[in-house]
Amino acid sequence: MIDDEYFLAALRLAAGADPPPAHVAAAAREVYGLRVAGSLTAAPVAEAALTGAGARGDDGSHLVRFVADGLTFDLEVTVGDGLIDVAGQVLPHPGEDTLVDVRTPHLTLSRRISRNGCFAATGVPPGWLSVVCHRPGHAPVQTRWVRIRP
Amino acid sequence: MHPQRAPAELLRAAADGDRSAWDALEAAYGPLMWAVARASGLGAADAADVVQGGWLRLLQRLEDIREPERLGSWLATVVRREALQVLREGSRSGVHVLATVEEPEPGAAVLGDDDRQLLWKAVSTMHEPCRTLLQLVAIDLGSRQTAARLGLPIGSVGPTRARCLEKLRTLISSQEMAQ
């Protein structure tokens, strides 16, 4: 039955036998530190809309595209040795002095983008990841969070 | 902590930079999200991951939750869908974008405080083996021990549980209709 999980969850809550561990509650509270005031959120483009090899490259990399506020974010994620590398491009070029943050819940790597809109971050821990583009004079644009499993 | 503040107010305050409002949201809905993740069949590590994803999603939606009074159902829906996605993926590596949830699934309403109490009372009125079986399910006893406690073959615990949940669903529906 489609909603069994909700019934079971309600029973579990009522019994109180499996409360969330303290570190789960702490992680939830820490999420607030990732708030980007006044930002826009870029939505993912359907995988079918991606060209070429689609969402998965020949080398095992994964391509995800997000769009918002006239900007397109292409993220190529490569998983290896338990860590991930992120190579990205923002188009059209968002202008000089633009900063891109590659973020996980515990780590933010800031990058200036190249003349062709590219940026990269290596050795990022797997898990949740988002990219924020800071353009002078514009609202920040952040991608929706993606979950990366090694 | 502000347990008396309505979800709409907490969302608005958190969007305006009030960390205590966010903490109040976590206190109000964190246990619910955890219960949904675990009830969906996830182990502790995956459940923690999925619950964190639910909070990350909320952080990006603070200003555009359509029905704040149904925030609990919305968060439960986000967590359930993400949990099912994790189960589908298994141990495969990959990249998954958090799903869009606009409307909460209707079934999530059972997680509201009032409905939850109604549900627990309804279980206590059920005949055996459903009453004991659902109480054991609620404490996550596991199929083997549940079978031993109830004197059932282990293979029949799953089907019996499904039948008991269906009976519970019928019971709740009839109680709601009587109100």
UniProtKB/TrEMBL annotation, chain A:
Protein name per the record: Uncharacterized protein
From TrEMBL, chain B:
InterPro entries linked to this entry: RNA_pol_sigma-70-like, RNA_pol_sigma-70_dom, RNA_pol_sigma70_r2, RNA_pol_sigma_r2, RNA_pol_sigma_r3/r4-like, WH-like_DNA-bd_sf
Matches recorded under SUPFAM superfamilies: Sigma2 domain of RNA polymerase sigma factors (SSF88946), Sigma3 and sigma4 domains of RNA polymerase sigma factors (SSF88659)
Domain RNA polymerase sigma-70 region: 28-92
Alphabetic keyword roster: DNA-binding, Sigma factor, Transcription, Transcription regulation
Any one GO BP annotation for this protein: DNA-templated transcription initiation
Record GO terms (molecular function): DNA binding; sigma factor activity
Entry annotated with the keyword Acetylation: no
Family: Belongs to the sigma-70 factor family. ECF subfamily.
The name this protein goes by in its record: RNA polymerase sigma factor, sigma-70 family
